[in-house]
Specification:
disordered N terminus, 4% strand, two-stranded antiparallel sheet, 2 domains
Amino acid sequence: MSRNSGDTKSLTIRKYRIRLILTAVGLIMTGFYHLTKLNEELARNIYMHFIRPLHDSLADLCDGTDTAVIEVIIACLCVVLAVYLILTMVYIIRHFFSLREFIGGILSLLSTFIMTASLIYGGFCILWGYYYYAPDVSEICDITPDPAGVLHEDLIATDEYFAGLANEYSLKVARDDEGGFIYSTDPYEHSRVLYDAVSVVFPGLEAPVHKPKSVHFSRVMSYMDFTGFFSPFTGEACINADSPECMTPSTIAHELAHQRGIGSEDEANFVAVVACLEDGDPDHVYSASLLALIHLQNALLGSGDKDEWQRIKDTYSPGVQTDLDRNSEYWSKYRDTVMYKATTETYDAFLKSYDQELGRETYGACVDLLVAYYSNIW
């Protein structure tokens, strides 16, 4: 065998060896998470003493730019994978009649994507999975919904409360020529003080302040049914800037709740509502009222009480109705797309893989917390 062929074989072995090692790293991270989560105290300690400080440090590093660093990373990864896919497919086609080269190209392609998927999922497990073992709302806010469920009259009363609040604040916010909500203050800048008031009421929500990031490719997020997301790889709270403005303040509050250690979606929605209402800024109170109203009305309709749902809906002010219509019309444009359906099903499976048993219905579970908290206030 010639020296060149030996060098080529050695290079090929090293190439696959690196991919196998990196794939193993991803699998080890996944296995480590699933093993350690069996001991909830250990999982919580990992979150408290490693993951949370790491995310604060990463967010500090990313605060120097208004651009979401994770967006740049994702864009670069997509470009690299796309170029690699094209070049590999060209190689496979050119060597279609050479069985050895053809199989080599296929194996190279598969090993690369398996390696990438393994590392990304393993990273998610380590950097995000432990959030579900962090102190939850019942500990931070001393609120525990009745395990027997929500009383129907309390659901109606809470729904009426937020309908009235939304109507009241719909008259205190700025509107465009068509009657739709527009910002009075910059919600991204206001985020610096958004959690100040609620952190006094619930000290467990106090945390370092990091500015949320507007995503440049927000339209892609809309196709994926995301109003925002928390990046466990960079510690950033990322916001869909293309969706209706009326929901952006509460979306920012939701993602900041994740950034402060609230893992589950239902609890993040609840914390977002409480934070905005305690803050008192009209834009934020109004946006949070709409968020709560949407969930409460959906729950009331789901209970089968369409008459009460319609009665409360008939009380909406023109501003509330306009904003809810805009929000509904915006998202309806994407609900029949292949990407929307695929992402929704994938995210549902993702939530369930982290013991969020309700899947995407987890978002509706915030109703129990809203009723438990606000039914004791009025």
